[in-house]
Amino acid sequence: MKNNIKNNIKKEKNRKESIIEGNNINFKYGDTEILKNINLDIKEGNFISIIGPNGSGKTTLLKKFLKILNVKKNEILYLNKDLLSYSNIEFAKMASYVPQFGEQNIFFSVEDVVMFGRNPYLKRFQEESIDDKKIVEDVMKLTGVWEFRDKYITELSGGELQRVIIARVLAQESKVIFLDEPISHLDIHYQIEILKILNKVKKDKSITIVAVLHDLNMAIEYSDKIVMLNNGIVEKYGDIDEVITKELIKKVYKINFEILTHPKTGKKYFLPDYK
Ligand SMILES: Nc1ncnc2c1ncn2[C@@H]1O[C@H](COP(=O)(O)OP(=O)(O)OP(=O)(O)O)[C@@H](O)[C@H]1O
Q1: Using a 6 Å cutoff on CB, does residue 227 contact ligand 1?
Q2: How remote is the CA of residue 193 from the centroid of ligand 1, in Å?
Q3: Which residues contact 77 (CB under 8 A, 6 or more apart)?
């Protein structure tokens, strides 16, 4: 009896709220249909990876979620509220974005760029507070960019710039962080480091992470759920075991490969044949 109650409490805690709801998301560039009737329910505090071949619509989907591309009424809801009814400031506290190709603004130092993450919390012309500065310093140390703080961002390598942009979204403290191939410019050390940091903010602060990842092994390691896009439709959305299957990977990526078990983590490990 006691165990039953305990289990029910545990189940209740695990029943997470829906933070993003996509209802029949569609998108066309000209006459070409890019996204076709996409329905997705993303729970708060989950790490969601979006995988799929080049051109399958991953970036387009992120841009819909971020209102960078036109959305229709009630096509996308955040916390049960239509995305279109959020003010810009409210939305900046809800969602932040690390784009595929980081911006380069020659007039700003690294520290300035990370400080931009605090803009939604500042009134017009208001100076940053000690708290804002502390948050910026902490996220810069976390992402390993504190030592570059006085450099201009044009003076950074691609991977260093990527980490600065990630520091900026962490400073923004939004409920959802969208990232488009966030580790593509990073060496293996920082690939793991950045995904570990994202995983930690997910766990500690219940932040929802939605990341486009090409590396299936990284997706397996860090995701709670995976969205597999193929030609503008959701081929599969679910737990790792449901999505990373021989049948689906072969169908979508058209390659030969093995799925092994990682000797240390016990998780699935994806190994292409390279032929
Ligand atoms: N501005 C645009 N105008 C017209 N077509 C576009 C535009 N941007 C993207 N597309 C097309 O939309 C489709 C989906 O592109 P998208 O960038 O969403 O794919 P993706 O899955 O993110 O690809 P990748 O893995 O290569 O980054 C592609 O066929 C692409 O050519």
Answers
A1: no
A2: 28
A3: 20, 21, 23, 83
State pLDDT tens for residues 23-80.
999 999 999 999 999 999 999 999 999 999 999 999 999 999 999 999 999 999 999 9
With a 6 A CB cut-off, is 64 part of the ligand 1 pocket?
no
Query: In this predicted complex, what is the ipTM?
Result: 0.98
The alpha carbon of 34 and the centre of ligand 1 are apart by a number of angstroms equal to 8
Closest CA to 43 of 60, 21, 63: 21
56 CA distance to ligand 1 centroid (A)? Answer: 7
- In the block, tokens 């799925």 appear at 259
Residue 232 Cβ < 6 Å to ligand 1: no
pTM of the model as a whole: 0.90
The distance from CA 35 to its chain's CA centroid, rounded to whole angstroms, is 19
